[in-house]
């Protein structure tokens, strides 16, 4: 037997099990040469030829019928090959039978519903209800192998009813050798078919008019026959009775199926609700998720979910979505309040403050949370300082015992943790006691200043850093969209923040003055910042320790780059403390020297002297050692304004006061008036020269540092310059007076350029500066 007449062989079926009317794909060999060659197909003993669709000689698609056997073979019969065999089987799953009134959770897939009543007596499969030749031209098959087409068009099909239909595949498979003219004819045929389909229901009605007329004639004949027989007149009209029967049948059917249809409608509503809940479960679960994440502290997750919900449902008009979203907004508003309360809590770390501010910014909280935090921290620092003073005063009066950890000044305070130069840490010649009982031996005022300074140094740096972050906008998230607006608000509040820093430093100074320099305060200030028992004044050694503490505080605040004008009050306090320490030390030394006479024992040693000179020498040495730190002037502690005033006073004393005194001395017949005036003026000039050199040195250092590199960049040497003449010096004085007078209005580069031109005729920069400030003093004197 030749290969073309071999019997069909089924080697595969997919799926290999299923319920009746399951669509299956049969694969094998020799499954026929076309639709007409396929004459038989049975699965599990049931004839499936009605639904069979021949695809290729190795593929057939059909639907499984309601067979009696649960499992059976797939047998294909063709004209060319006869009865075939099968190497695989199909398992038929028989579903549970459901009555018309039984409840069921299974819904009919109406999209793929197949009505078997259509053309049931014809031999054409419903899957094949399509024209065998849609192009209307001769088909030429077999030129291109099927495997090659599958490789060229993966996951595509040449079946024009398939979802993955490929026109190229179809043409190569069926019309590989068709001429171009024939293809043009095929296009015309397709256009005709499309125009026929567009005729719609009107064409259907036109085609069935004869049938409608025949039905009308038949009904009229029946009615006429009934009237001629008299049936309509006996026992009522038959059509009336028929109508009543039909109505009763309809009512009975409605009664039977009303409950079923009601359950179906309810199930449809439930299914739609479940679909909505499943599709929008993110929104419906969001209120509960927000509460859970808030309890866990996952504020980032809450903010991200809120932003997503706001973008999706913020402007929705659906009532149920609006209701759920309003609940989300209610919880977010509660979160804003919670975060604001946490932000304003004291004490808190800088990290937490920044975090809460960023959260509130992302949640678009009303107002300016960052500025509210700054105000709260400012009040907290002032309250800490006031509480520190009140606690120490209560302890001094014996009505309050300090907590061991609260206000006890330990050696690990913020002042001792500040990185300072070695000389500052050593504190000069005065060494602070390091034993454990130090805070019990030291006076209350000394421990108060130490604790007060520690409070300021521990709180003010974070307060200052919070402000810097507020100004540069690093506190706010970019996604909030308000960074520029908030930065603008920060720039507008610079004066307000400056006032806060000034109030903190002023409160620090006033509290220290109330404890150590009560005479420098008014009565109103004493009632607020005083209250100390000052019956026992502090010694010079303890005042030196206070100066050391205040200096550490000033250096720590200067390291934060706080403007010097805000720290001027602390510098003034240092100046007053140094003067007070100097006077106190000298007074105590004077008293100690006076008491030396009481210690004289009149015991003569080998050199013929008593111990009194040695005791006097030791007393003076101790005094000089204790005055080393108060007399030392640290950078930034010189009050330039006061120094200029002193220089002006010296000039006035020399030119006016001493001359007036000399005149009065002569009037009163003092013979040594000339000598007195001469010695006094000489001493005054030495003081004036010393103060003037100090002032010039202080003012020249920053100018020298900025100008000298540029002067020496071109191999400039002062030795090559001629000494300035008197005319040049006078010209420099006149120009510099004008320059200094206008320095507040002239740009810095203009001043630098003018100064550089004047340098060319002078010997050194400091020499130039000396004449510069001499000219200024001359200008002040003229005024």
Automatic annotation (TrEMBL):
<keyword id="KW-0653">Protein transport</keyword>
<dbReference type="GO" id="GO:0015031">
    <property type="term" value="P:protein transport"/>
</dbReference>
<comment type="similarity">
    <text>Belongs to the SEC5 family.</text>
</comment>
<dbReference type="InterPro" id="IPR013783">
    <property type="entry name" value="Ig-like_fold"/>
</dbReference>
<dbReference type="GO" id="GO:0007399">
    <property type="term" value="P:nervous system development"/>
</dbReference>
<dbReference type="InterPro" id="IPR014756">
    <property type="entry name" value="Ig_E-set"/>
</dbReference>
<comment type="function">
    <text>Component of the exocyst complex involved in the docking of exocytic vesicles with fusion sites on the plasma membrane.</text>
</comment>
<feature type="domain" description="IPT/TIG">
    <location>
        <begin position="8"/>
        <end position="91"/>
    </location>
</feature>
<dbReference type="GO" id="GO:0006887">
    <property type="term" value="P:exocytosis"/>
</dbReference>
<dbReference type="Pfam" id="PF01833">
    <property type="entry name" value="TIG"/>
</dbReference>
<dbReference type="Pfam" id="PF15469">
    <property type="entry name" value="Sec5"/>
</dbReference>
<keyword id="KW-0268">Exocytosis</keyword>
<dbReference type="InterPro" id="IPR039481">
    <property type="entry name" value="EXOC2/Sec5_N_dom"/>
</dbReference>
<dbReference type="GO" id="GO:0000145">
    <property type="term" value="C:exocyst"/>
</dbReference>
<comment type="subunit">
    <text>The exocyst complex is composed of EXOC1, EXOC2, EXOC3, EXOC4, EXOC5, EXOC6, EXOC7 and EXOC8. Interacts with EXOC3L1. Interacts with GNEFR/DELGEF; this interaction occurs only in the presence of magnesium or manganese and is stimulated by dCTP or GTP. Interacts with RALA and RALB. Interacts with ARL13B; regulates ARL13B localization to the cilium membrane.</text>
</comment>
<feature type="domain" description="Exocyst complex component EXOC2/Sec5 N-terminal">
    <location>
        <begin position="638"/>
        <end position="747"/>
    </location>
</feature>
<feature type="domain" description="Exocyst complex component EXOC2/Sec5 N-terminal">
    <location>
        <begin position="133"/>
        <end position="630"/>
    </location>
</feature>
<dbReference type="GO" id="GO:0006893">
    <property type="term" value="P:Golgi to plasma membrane transport"/>
</dbReference>
<protein>
    <recommendedName>
        <fullName>Exocyst complex component 2</fullName>
    </recommendedName>
</protein>
<dbReference type="InterPro" id="IPR002909">
    <property type="entry name" value="IPT_dom"/>
</dbReference>
<keyword id="KW-0813">Transport</keyword>
<comment type="subunit">
    <text>Component of the exocyst complex.</text>
</comment>
<dbReference type="InterPro" id="IPR029175">
    <property type="entry name" value="EXOC2/Sec5"/>
</dbReference>
